[in-house]
Task: structure prediction
Amino acid sequence: MLKQLKQEFHTLFKSENQVRTFFAPGRVNLIGEHTDYNGGHVFPCALSVGTYAIARLRSDKRVRMFSKNFPELGVIDFEIGDIHFEKEHDWANYPKGVMKEFQKHSHELLQGCEVLFYGNIPNGAGLSSSASIELVTAVMINNLYSIKMEMIDLVKISQYAENDFVGVSCGIMDQFAIGMGKKEHAILLNSETLAFTYSPVKLTDASLVITNSNKRRGLADSKYNERRYECEQALNDLKKQLDIQTLSELSASEFENFKGLIRDDVHRKRARHVVYENQRTKEAVRKLKENDVNGFGELMNESHHSLRDDYEVTGVELDVLVETAWDQDGVLGSRMTGAGFGGCTISIVRNNQLTHFKEKVYDTYLKETGLEADFYDVNIGDGARELVE
Result:
């Protein structure tokens, strides 16, 4: 594939000069949902699919970018000293934002460049294609221009680009997992302090399967803001007697002792999810360290129950996928992953049941929702990097 991408680069930009190749993965969160903006832990991993960038410097100050995923938009062309958000540039605003952030952080980019992007992350699946293109751009700029920033700083620059340039108020989990990913490991990340540890994910005779609901996530943004508000209100009620800054500082027993301080029943349910999900996430890491994959799967199931009943962000489609998965032989655990109201589920499935699992879930999902599910068997890969042959 890389050989073909390079040939397409040379055809597009009409030159045989040397190019360099970069890659940033997508990511999936194994457990720890809607805890990141509540000061809690998340447990994401980098995937083997992601975004490729074939690039080289130019001798002038022009930047020319092309995406094989959006060929109808043609080559995006701009001056490196005049980078600003342009709606018609669509996807290219993500890499443009990263370049702008380098400049804001006192890194002068004196030459332009040519870049061909290609991503094999399924469109709209909630596997962080935007963060992936940000990180592949950050690594590319860092290496092409010999800037030599540490990866954690590239992660932060990529988040700033999405927040400030593109205008999407995301947390840092996606960029962190994509930049800092490690093969066959997930990352236990404290979203408040950015303290993290790598945890091996050894499934032996089982596989991670991502199932795409192909349900448009129309409610996700508005409900996200609504849930943030509800959690803030619950926290404010608790802070009248407790010296805490986030919901995730509470243990499950502390929450049970003080939950009566939360005046609104709905706000209490939201807080309960956050507290227990944070505890589940830390417990899940312990299960994996003990090679207790069955125990890890049970925690995934509990996570989905909580997201369905207390946080109410699943929706019919995700519930059908997960509940059908639970009924299949060889499924150790299944849950929604991401913001909710569409997107994907993540399941752990015994290898000898993979074909049956996909057939049964596909048929049931189609029958009950009228939608077709897509399945991706994924491997846990390394983070963003230059690919050196």
In short: DSSP finds eleven helices and 13 strands in the chain. The two ends are 13 Å apart (CA to CA).
